[in-house]
Every structure is written in C-alpha cells, then in structure tokens.
Amino acid sequence: MKRVTGGVLACLLAVVARATPPGQYRLTVRPEMVSASDPRADFSGLVDEQHEVGDPPSGEPATGWKMPSQHQAAFPLRAVIDLGRETPLATLWLYDMNNTGDVVIHTGSPAGWSRVATYDCKRYKSWAQVPLGAVSRYLMLEVKTPGALFNEVVLDAYSERGWQAVAAAQAEAARREAERQAALARAREEALKRPLTELAPYGRLSLVDEVDCGAAEPGHALRCVPEGAARVETLLGRACRTLPPTSKACAAMTFRLGARKLLRPGAAYVLAVDYPEDAPRGMIIINTGNETSRGLHTGLATGDALHAKYVDSQAESLKLPLSGKWETWSLLFRLHDRFAEKGLVRGSSRPRALTPEDGFDVTVAQFSAENDPFSRGAAVASIRLYEVVDEDRLALAVNFPPEGLPRRLLFWREEMADGVIEGKKPQDRGVDEPLEWYRHKAELMRFLGMNTYAKDLLEFGACQHWDPTEHGGNAWVYFNSENKGLWGRIVTLMGQYGFDVLPYYEYSGSKGQQGLGNQRRAQPLKGEGPYSHITWIESANADLTDPDTLADFQKMLDLTVVKYQEQARFAGVWLRPRAQMPVGFGDRTRARFAQEANQGAAVTREQLKADKALYGRYLAWWEGKRRDFLTALRDYLRGKGVKDAFVLYTGCSGEPGKGFGDFQPRFFTDAPDLWAPVLAQEAHQPPLNRQWQVLTPAAVAEGDHYLRALLAPGATWGAWELQHSNPADDPAAYRQVEGVLLSHPFNRLYTVSSPKTFDLYRTPAGLALMRHYALNENMMSDAADKELLGYFVADVERAGPACMQAEAVAMAHGDPTMIGYLAGNNFGRGFPLYVRDFNANFLALPALPSRLLAGACAEAAVVARAIDAGSHGTYLSVVNTAPTPLRGVRVKVPPGAVTALASGAALPRAGEAVTLDLRPYQVLALRVR
User: What is the pTM of this model?
Assistant: First the structure.
C-alpha cells in the first residue's frame, strides 16, 4: 500500500462538492464487493444507488446500512469494500443523514489497516467529501456508533497519469519532510552547543540565530524592496549592508530568523541589531516575531517622517554627538504563535501563515530621502536572535518609597495593537490565547520597571473587551460577545502581578442602538451637522454639560472599575475624547448656559458669533462644566470605594502631540544654519506658498511658543469647527483641584524646555506627562505610493542614552510624578539599559512636590531638585541635561548619609557634596537621611 503523507490527509472534508477532476474517474462499487464484520449488519445499501447520484454526487439516496437496534452492543461495525485489485484511491463521498457519530476510514488489507481519516457525520442531508490519496485494494469503513448514519458511498480513483502526479507530489512532500526532520535534528543538536553570552540588561542569553548582514550571501531568505536597494559597504572598519537614501520612495531589507531553530511560542527572546554611529541615520526595525515596529535615529536625522501623510510630525533635528562606534539596538519580546510575511498586519487583513518552525521576518527599513534629509540611510552589520536563559532575572528590582509616601506612575497605552488577538480563525491571530498576550505585556512591564497597566476600553468610542449587558448590551453599547469577559481576566492578571490599573477611555457617549453618543447632542455653532471633515469621528459625540452624559459614563465605570476593584488596585481612570467631547451649542446646551451663567437670558447662535465677550463667557462656562464633569467622576469612583482614585484627562487628540493652533509650518532644530537651505529646496516647500519657521528649542522656551500652543484651540478652516471639536486645555482651572489633572503633552526637546509649561499643568495630584509618538502611519511606500510592507506604523526614538532625553530634561524643568506613553502599536523600547535606569530612579522618588536646589552644582547642565519627605528624609533628583557624559561632578547635598536609591548603595560624601559620574541624560535619585 502507498499513501500520500503530509497535511492534505489531515483535513476531513471539503465543504463544496465538485465534479471528478481531470486525472480521476468514478469507480463502480457493487453490493457483492461489500462485506460486514458482523453477519447481522447489512451494508449493501451503501452502494446500491451508484448510478443515480451523478457527478458530483447529488440528490438524497434512499437506503443505507442497517443493523437491528437490539444489537447496539456490537458496535463498532466494520464494512470492507474489496475492489479486486490495488487501486490509487482519490476521494470517498458519503451522503450524511441526520445524526452524529464517527466513521473511521482505513486503507490497507485485513492483515493490516492504516487509518486515513475520521468523519463525524455532523453535516445534515448532504454529501461529504473525504480525500484518500492512497493505493489500496481494500477500503474499510469503521462505524463507531449507531449515530453515524450515512446512506451511500461513492469512490473516485486516480488514472495512471493522475496517480503519477500524486506520487511525484508524495515524493516531493517526503523529501521536504525529510529535509525538515534533518534540520530539526541539527537544531536539537546545535541547541545543546549554542554559545552563551551575558548581555546587559538581559542577563544570560543563548544565541539562536545570526545574520552576517555584510556577507555577500547572508542567506536568511534576504529580500529587498525595491529589488537591489541594499548594498554591502565597510563602515567603521566593519562590513555591513546599507540602504542608501532613496528619493521619493522608501526602501527595506528583510531577513528570516529562527527557521528550524526550535523556537518556542511565549518564550522570552532578544533581538539585537548592530548599527554604526558614524553619521546621521534613521531606520525602522520591524519584528514580526511579536509584531513590533520601532525606529531609531542618530545625529541630525529627524527619525519621524518630515512630510507625514495625515498629520504634522512636528519634526525636530538636534546636533547630537555620534559615538563613532558600532552600537547595538535591542528588543526584549515574547514570541507569538504565528507571524505574517511581508510586514505587519492590520487586524486580520492578511493571514499570519508562518509558525515558529518557519521562523519570522525582521525588516530594516527607511523613509524616503525627502522625509529624513540628513539621514545617510539604514545600515546594519549583524542581526542576532537570542533566547533568554534566566527569565526570572529579567524583572527590574525597583526600590519604591516606603509605605506612607505616594508613588509615581509609569504606564503606556497601545493604539491599533490588539488585532493580534481579535481574529476568529487561528491564522488570523498572532496569539491563540488572548490572556497570554496580556501576560507578555505584564512581563515587559516587569522588565522595563513600569508599575501601572493602562488599556483602552473605548477606542474612538467603541467597546473594547468588556461586557455592557447589565445596562442594555447592544441597545446601549455595541460589543463583541466573544471577548466580553477579557477585561475582567486582564484586571485579575495585573492584580496578581501587583500592578496598579489605569483604564483608558476615548469616550464619545455610548454607541449602541439607543446609545447616547449616537444622538450627537453636542452641536456646532454653525448649526446641526458635523464639526469636521473626518466623517468617521462624527458618528457620535457626548455633550459633557448634559446630566445624561455623566450618568452614561458612570454606568461604564460601574462595569469596568467598580465591579473589579477587589481584583486589583485602580489608580484612577484616564479619559481622552479624540474630538468627540466637543464644545456644544445645541438648543438644550445654550439653555443650560442661560440658566447657569447668563442670568436666565436666552442666547442664540448668531449672538454668540457676533459678541466676542459673550462667546468668551460661554467658553469659560463650558470649561467649568468640563471641570465639574471630571471632578464628579472622581467623586463617583471614591464614593464607590475606589480609594484615592484620580481622573486623568488628555485633551490633546492628535498622535504627534499638541499643534500650535495655526497652519504655520514649523521646524525645530539647534542647527538652523544647516537646515534653512535644505528646507528652502523645492522638495520641502509647504503648501499655499507658506514658509518654514525654523525655531531652536531654546527660542521656543524663551518666547513661550509652546506654552501658547498648549492653550491654543485646534486650527480650523472654511466652515469647519475644529476649534470646538478639539477645545483647548485650561490647566489653570485645575491648579487647586485635588484628584483631577490634565496631561502635559511631550516628545521633542522643545516640548520640555520651559519650566513654565510644567508649572501650568501642576496640580495637587501631581504633574502628568504624556508622550505622543508621531505614528508615521502608511509612510512606508514606493514612488507610486504603493505600500511596501503592508500596514505600517512606527514609533521612533533617539538612539542610545538620548532615548531618554525628553524625560530627563522634563525631570530637570518640571519633575513629573506620572509619565505615560501613547504608543502607535505593540510597545517596546530599543535601548532598555537607559530606559530601565531612568525608570528605577524615577519610581524611587516619592510623588511629592520638589524644589530646585539653586547653586547645588557648578556644572550648568546638572540640575538638582529636593523633596522634603519629613521623617523619611530628603529625596534628591540629580539630572544631567547634557548630551555628553560628565565625570567627577560635585553636587551639594543636605547633611546626612547619602544613598543612591536605584542601587541601594551608600555614596561617600566629601564635606557638603557628593561626587558623581553621570551619563548623558541620566537621572539619579538620592536620599539624604
């Protein structure tokens, strides 16, 4: 007997019947060719209507197998069809009746049977098709239970040439399988000999795979887009593969890592990429092993796309020093169950067809030359894949302040990332078990030293993974019933890890069949209709002056926070309206204004348009209602037992951060003499004959440009009302409000260069900074604007210690107590050594007000701040705001023993000072007691 091996025979049946294809023919099976294992059974009815069913089989055969009902103990029954000679069998057709039960199909002979397939009879009065693909004289049907009811069988066989094609396919499949087994055997042998290395901050690692990118033939299924884009060069004495700058088109090179290397889903791996710091360079690294896309940039490179499609990236270029050495970007990740080819997938737009045995793609890519003019292009010498040997060593030990002192918070929120777990079919999911994906995130938090878990429960108003059934289900909030319990499981998981939980809501009113948001009670000043041209946002909104809005959102808090407060500690809630909690001017809204703030006198839209003073009072009233709404949420949570809950409000709805309230193109750099002639080139000319305004970060701070930007409403044009759909922040109104705070947007150096902006946003609850990444959505395309790598987004960070530049300078100028990250996709950090160091020092400080220690250090770039913690001593943060290391820096400290909090080490003091060595943009937390 010969059989076809492989996955073909593992499938049970095809759904759609088809005629016998070329290379096959219909066999004639007669009743006398069928014998039964039990003389009481009659199987002749299975083959008595062979010439009536047609091709493909159709109709409803009348007779089937029979067995007296009193003999059910005789099961299983076996029917053997003797074809008289060895025959290459193609397909078995069965007419399934109206019950369920297994029938097992065997080929071979009475001397030895081989199971081909099992059919469960779960179809109803229809023909089922079972592929056989085997040479055999006999076919045995083993009926396991009386419920396996089928009324006719039909057999198709291969012709001689048809079987030759099948046999050739069998041989090829066998060859590939032998090759696969040999590769796996080599991998098992190699795994025992893999070199071990210590790599900070990961501990001991085992080298799984490595690409020598500078080799003429690097293997690993190298492919480039466009074809031939990459070339081999020698940089800093080392051969590498580069992507020279490409005009009007992006470029990328992709390698397959880990194929036949015994990769384990869910295990911890490290991806390490060696790049040169010889020149300004910007590059994106896409790791499909866990669907992460992150960029890095050095020197004058902007990193983010200068001419982004949908938003203004508000790009910044700084003369950061280059190390002149080969450096390493690295990423800790948990391996997914399946991976996509050719870049990332948005949701289930393409199947994730690769398995850990196949390996996964790593892509190094770059934007067009026009989008990063000073970049010399991507360059990599080596890409290595390591497996973490001691996963328990990954967690960062954080020395939090003692009990009684408030803690600082670090968290992130991911946009457009959970498509990894949303697909209904296995091939549409990157991770089979959704909760495992969130466990991966918890482990990453432990590694990076982040103590607060944030997740979107409303995305542009849409329900994400919680159950609204108690308050009306789809009539109130449309939801996915398959994932309705996931949020509760996530909260329990994060509580087990000891994290605080901070749910995130892009609230737009409830969006169900009778949802409040769909009523769009907030209306523009011009009259009914949309506020903006972004139609998909305009489908729902919430008027926060309406008492129904508060009641609507409180019900959401009941089901997402109050219900689960015993499973984890909720720090509070986080709202970001995304232009869906606009300033409203509808009749009922104006009536409330008249009653509450205009001495009962009604106002019309025309009056508000004509009278600037009246319009100003109306906006002030609305801002007061927003504050009332947020404080009411705080009080509601606390009244329901969520102790010390705060409300965090992010008014900035855009990905790149806060705009300047106009359409003036701006560019930020400390090298305006280098950039001015570049920006004057035709390729960089702004639309409508506008001219670039080039500003240094220092000039932005000195001229209060960013301060005014933070208070500016959204820029608008024509008849649209973006200034009302994106109302400005009013942080001064919260200066004395306990438990409610607005987040201060940051990312570039210019956004953290003025102490005034931080002072403006500081509240009794502390100061919250929110990092807005530019996203770079759909910016990886060719000259014809065709996508090169599927759906594309990428968060970009500065290279090396400069990756923490903005956070460190913010600590010097503002001392935030909360820092959040609005990530564009699956979160990760490419320079974790510096990230962990910052996080450990940041979280070691109590969330209490600090003051500048004037004259603490003679070095102008070093800033020291002090926190009076009473009996717990004095806490200090010492910050190097320079892009260069500083050694032997003397910092004056109060009397007492000095401890470096992140390490717990005692620091010697000489008189009134300690001497410190500081990396670029390093923050050092000390306690003097």
Answer: 0.87
